[in-house]
## 1
Amino acid sequence: MASIAQEESRSISQNVTWGKRVSFQAGKVSFAYKSFLGYKKEGDKIVIDEEQAVIVRLIYRMFLVEGKTCSGIANHLKSQQIETPSGMSTNWSKNTVNSILTNEKYKGDALLQKTFTDNYLEHSSIKNTGQVPQYYVENNHPAIIEREMWEQVQIELARRDQMGAQYSSTDIFASKLICEDCGGFYGKKKWHSNSKYSRFIHQCNRKFHKDKGKCLTPNLTEEDIKLKFINAYNVSMKDRNRVMQDTAEIIDLLSDTTQLEQDIEHLNDDLIVVAELVNRLIKENSKTNTSLDDYNKRYEELRNRYDKTKKKQEDLIMARNEKRAQALNMKTFLSNLRNIDDKLSDWNEHVWMLMVESAVVHRDTSITFMFQNGIESTI
């Protein structure tokens, strides 16, 4: 009886799995509406829940425009008593915020079969990292977040992950203002905190670091940085139309990855050939009396050939991804530029956060601002 029950369970599991994969192949998307923030179902349609969508847009804006960390955003939502996606509590975590920032459904797409059931008896679900096919559906439903903004968030997530502990969200200049002497970031410091002369200044975080020596770059006030940025922006964007045209041309160049794609595909073909040669070598070795030394020598040659080819392919994939990321930065820059006045008369935090890649502070108090489209301006 136990064997019959087990076989029936296996059969049911296979049928359910087959049914789900047929649905995936057809592009049918299912939503866990009760625990998915921002969407609801009306009839057979997926529609935006505007009350919840406000929270999603807030999370993306706080991360990208205000520079907040996932933990900082979670703490803010918790302090505002905003319910989590499950609706069961207001106890937000950084992982919950991160999952919202990385979920492609918020740009209107859907990646199907992110997980799969590994054991039909235990019904355990594990992350799909290539064990079974995945399906990607574009423009499946209304987007809460614009596609460009969503992609920009992914780039920013990768940038912060690469920076690790160096990233700081303590103020709008953190992790963008760089010391010319040591390459370290500037940070906000309070002087004379216990007196009437107390004030905040921005200073290289490694200024008095024992291993780095003493940096000779100056301390800056917030007003210094803001005024220099306004001047740098106005100088750089003086011929707005030319800047926009040049940026559009660069986007076209960066977007053309045809040759890279062809080279990646050719190397993939080479990898398949080498893998087949290895399989043949193993089979021949099992059927013949080839010496172990000859077998090991040939196997090592094929393995080295495979590793070198794989490395070339990975380098090309990285180059392609970098071009795509640069093109996306340019597109975002161009999109933002279209929505900004020709000239800045006052400080604009939105422009600073979205259009400036970094700013290097020099010993003579000047700052070189590097914009997302590659333009540099020293003031």
## 2
Amino acid sequence: MLERNDWFGGAIKTDEITVPGFRHDVFSAWHPLWVGGPAHAELADDLTRQGLEYVNTDLPTGTLYPDGESAFLLRTADENAAELDRHRPGDGEAWRAMLGEFFRNADLAFGILGTELWSRQGAGLGVKAVRRLGRQGAAEFAGRLLVSARDWLQTTFGSERAHGLLAPWVLHTGLGPDAAASGYMAQVIAVAVQEGGMPIPRGGGQKLADALVALIRGSGGTCETGVHVERVFSGGVRTAEGETVTAAHAVICNVTPTQLYGDLLEGFEDKATRFRYGRSDMQIHYALSELPQWEGDDRLVRTAIVHLTPGLDGVSRAVNEAERGLLPAEATVVVGQPLTMDDSRAPEQKGILWIQLQELPWRIKGDAAGEIDVGAGAWTEDLRERYADRIQARLARHISNLESSILGRTVLSPADLQASNINLRHGDPYGGSLALDQNFLWRPLPSQPGHRTPVPGVWHLGASTHPGPGLGGGSGALVARQLLEPSLLTRARRLVRR
């Protein structure tokens, strides 16, 4: 394994980036899709032996509204039904009905994310849907997969609190609430959070990367950092230092299509220019002298991830502003509180906040609030800090001791993210736009879907490939499954022996 950066893990990194003794997950932080996914199911025992330990919570997420009211997504169907009924009677029964319908065809719903769609297994998934549901039923099922989160939420739940509880989660899948398939992804995330919580590794996300590296090395593999690969070919790679590393079976590239087809493989530059990137991201990290004191529901201080938003329309408006090149006037603020589960990350009685903003433009045309001069439209240190000040002021309205307890603040703009990791192009943490023509069957590109590349023995994985972003290891599991599958010749020999 050859890693360009000086740490293993890519967008998994734990570091003391504010004040000594405060260990922050610099980029990604939460692992529900990984812990609930096929790769973890197979590797969990081996990783545990390498010292990896996951901790979890009964309060995975909630939404805090500007008026101080909150709604929460909890760990059981009964709890969630009661929580939704608290805001509007009848929404609890709608939740139960959604779960019943989802679980009846969960193998199909999750199968889409766990199958190489351009393969006989992908075709088999379609055949299974037709056999179970009939042709018309399968067509209706496929159609429901493309519904937007707005349409699904507004036709399922009567309360705007329920809409605002679930709508922010589509941002974590690289979509917006009005995008095709965002309703399907909202349901997947909702079910995953209810069933799996919000697990994190004790000591920081880096513990997962460290355990995986230890597992590889313990199995005879080699892992090196600080190695920049400049060319990939069938049978090996060449580094920037001129060293050639050969591969007996396959070369697997966890990069964006821009890198793969624009830099690493010769003769495919046109593919690189066709790939589009999505909205940009900002991270804000706080080291606090004490735990945050939230105004309102006393569950907020114990909730792993709190979304601060006016609701569905607020998320939609901020996404639209970002996509038009504007700094959102009222962004969806993702407030992560890892100390609710893991007190090893900060000194005793101190606080940590992990802030993510997923609705930002790469090239800035203006400020939707009309307050910030964006200058030439590029992310500068000054612009970064002024926008972070806006977010901090909003947080301070709900966390009474925030500004009085700040020991350190570190902000990473989209430009900082791109500089830190070549895969975070334009500060997009989700590996490229997930518009329908770059999603599912067509990811990463309609001209090059799936994980095989035009070069024999060279494979492509990562967030830019199916099943897309989310720290789940899905693309790696799909590629591994194919590489470990016996060849046609091997299977023929086995049949002859029988």
## 3
Amino acid sequence: MTRLCAAAVAFVLGLAAAGLSACSGGPLAPEAERFGPSPALPAPSSRLLPLVRIAPARGWAEGQVPTPAAGLQVQAFALGLEHPRWLYVLPNGDVLVAESNAPAREGGGGGGLRDRVARWIMARAGAGTPSPDRITLLRDADGDGVAEQRHLFADDLTSPFGIALVGERLYIANADALVVAPYAPGQTRLAARPEKVADLPAGRNHHWTKSLVASQDGTRLYVGVGSNSNIAEFGLEEEVNRAAILEIDPATGAVAVYASGLRNPVGMDWNPVTGELWTAVNERDELGNDLPPDYMTSVRRGEFFGWPWSYWGRTVDTRVRPENPAAVARSRTPDYALGAHTASLGLVFTRGARLGPDLADGVFVGQHGSWNRSPPSGYKVIFVPFADGRPAGPPRDVLTGFLGPDGEARGRPVGVIVDSRGGLLVADDVGDAVWRVSAAR
């Protein structure tokens, strides 16, 4: 590394440690203007270096728990996990937890300033450790809201994330491939090594998670694949089948792009009223505190959502070269903004939830939290109400307290899912826990 590069890295890390940047992150919009179908889109805020405002990973002190909204209570469903990211509830009520972290990059990753700073950010945020590469089964046999059984369900995986059961076949989305193994009801460990169904984009894996949902008839699988960059700065040749939701035929392994221009689509679920696929999407960085908004949206076959050339429909990102007016012209505006830099990852509709009438129809969203906004955003679980299959009002906090009084991260919510008894489970990958939210007694 040259002296100039070393000095630049040291400068950025010094700024990050101080919670500062080379210039302001831009004015802050009121919260009401950052959420909903028509968010405020301020002018982009340029700066010499990216704003870096990291909440250092601290974890929870013994006896600490997140703060539930009024009328709710929370308890630890499972503690002592290792980077629990994603959740899946089996038909018998067992809960599968993907314990996972970013895979090692092919060739060791890049050596440039951006990559070095990114690795430092991940380590400070609690994501710099090797991936556990396993799925754990949690069983709450007595129904008290605490899993008294824990089993190693599958290991020797590659940064596993999404899980879907179709009949007696359990699919797992690794960082580099979709795999499948036979599953028998009640088993606590896969009896056979998973076999590959289809390759998934890997390599640099700037966004490594691969979420997964099956079609309602089980004939197709949908995988969310994030971009390999912020705004295609490594070239579009690295973005093939990325920033997209892929449709896979599990019988043949054939892969097709279902929808594109989605910078990092993570949580996916089927709208129980309209039957549409919905996803939560993380948008791009380095345009300011409130730009652009992360979002959730319905997604239909063939739709394009702008990345990298535009955001929130047809708002052009002037940093991207060459320009692509034709792509911008066909960019669809998302349905609902979730606030800028909230890192909204988990998404699940409320079907089966028993958390009271105010949380009976809508979507729960797990917001992992910002690393590049001042003040921080996200770090909570929210609820967006729906009516007649569409968003119908401002978000409500469901679970907070993940940021401590000194700005440290006690936890970071990721996957959310409704369990077989109507409680909401939340994977917390910094707190190494799965929390269960239920109606207060």
## 4
Amino acid sequence: MFRSIVLVALASAGLFCADGARATTARTFVSISGSDANTAVNCAPTTPCRTFAAALGVTSSGGEIVVLSSGGYGPVTIGQSVSITAPDGIYAGISVAAGAGITVATAGVSVALKGLTINGTGGTYGIYMTNGSALTVVNCVIAGFGNSAAADAGIYVKAGIEARLINVLVRDNFNGIYLDGGAVSTIAQSQVLGNLGTGIVVANTNTGGSSVTIAYLSDTLVNGNAAGVTASGSSSTATGYAYASNVVASGNTDSGFEATANGTLVAGNCVAMNNGQYGLLNSGGVIDSAGNNTASGNGLGAVSGITATGGISY
């Protein structure tokens, strides 16, 4: 009887449900001076938690975790819809020695990340998403992930989700951004720099069925990678499409824009400059110039394997 009275009192204070399960709240907080023991009081602004993982446990599905002070907050696996937000002027870091910084693998969840810095010191992926409904990444930095595995990347998405990557800096990973498995993505106002593999991969490695990975790229710089932007597919029905507008692919070791087997790349108002091989290369797929493209100063030539070269300035 005493236990029941205590639980009812805690429930009335908003700390526990009457059945003993912990209550959640729409907005929780983390701070460098916080404590994960503060999950008992739902990581309130006056009693924040220390890590994202702890705060997530008392955040309602669809709720928000807010960073109050600069510091490191640890890797986290996200199994519910949530936003994680660091306001302007606050450094919110995740350092990863192995595995992924942020993992999302739960059906139906929508995750939004704003203002985070995710650094790899041996990790494989900065953001790793293999299930869900949507991923939004705004004003984030992802650096230092992967080694030589083909799909290691700063941002890796292999799921039929909607991904929105806006004003992100993805640098010094193996691949920069790797999109696969039917994802439909928007990449805008971003910088993809100095990655050892490909800056932006739009692929479909599914071997059965019919699915299309699509990326809409705009106002983005892809510089200093091994290759710039590539589109590929595993079959004629499992394909990758990249649509690039106002994208600059420059200083990459290989080609700026490339379509390989079963991939399609459409470029308009783009610049391919000073790449080691070609500005635009078709090596088994389709490249379409939508007009007003510039290919200049590339090591082996402006274009290769393209049957229609209209709208390209050399």
